[in-house]
Design goal:
Blueprint: H1 4-12, E1 23-24, E2 27-28, H2 33-47, H3 53-70, H4 80-94, H5 103-111, H6 128-131
Antiparallel strand pairs: 1-2
Helix pairs in contact: 2-4, 3-4
């Protein structure tokens, strides 16, 4: 269930077709695990006050616009969530949370988590350096 902020963040993206996340049968569509991760982290970091949600939205729209001006609209390399990750990186670098180029390695560490002997996923504290809270 969404909190009030999460509901605002998700629905604020639905009004504009330019910035709306891909949907299938009315539900958000994530084809790869990392897409869910960057989607959730963007909302969580904004909710925690690391940056304003509108700042993220503007970065996302600028990335989409930049891609569209440098590619044919039917270019098969289009990747909405890559634009999302690029926007997230821009705002976290600007906020001083991570250094440029660090975000992909942080997410890779999370996605490569393996179950430890205690049954918990090791590596779940990878994001603790980003948001200041453990996500396990």
């Amino acid at each position: 269930m969404f909190t009030r902020f999460e509901h605002y963040a998700a629905t604020s993206m639905m009004g504009s077709s330019e910035e709306a996340p891909p949907r299938e049968d009315g539900h958000l569509q994530f084809d790869r695990d990392w897409e869910k991760l960057v989607f959730g982290v963007a909302i969580a970091l904004s909710k925690e006050g690391h940056y304003e949600w509108d700042e993220f939205r503007q970065a996302l729209m600028n990335n989409i616009r930049s891609w569209e001006t440098s590619h044919d609209l039917d270019d098969v390399s289009w990747d909405y969530y890559q634009c999302w990750m690029d926007a997230l990186e821009q705002v976290v670098v600007k906020a001083g949370i991570l250094e440029a180029g660090e975000i992909e390695s942080r997410f890779s560490g999370l996605l490569d988590c393996k179950r430890g002997s205690d049954g918990h996923e090791s590596g779940m504290n990878e994001l603790s350096g980003i948001s200041g809270t453990a996500l396990s």
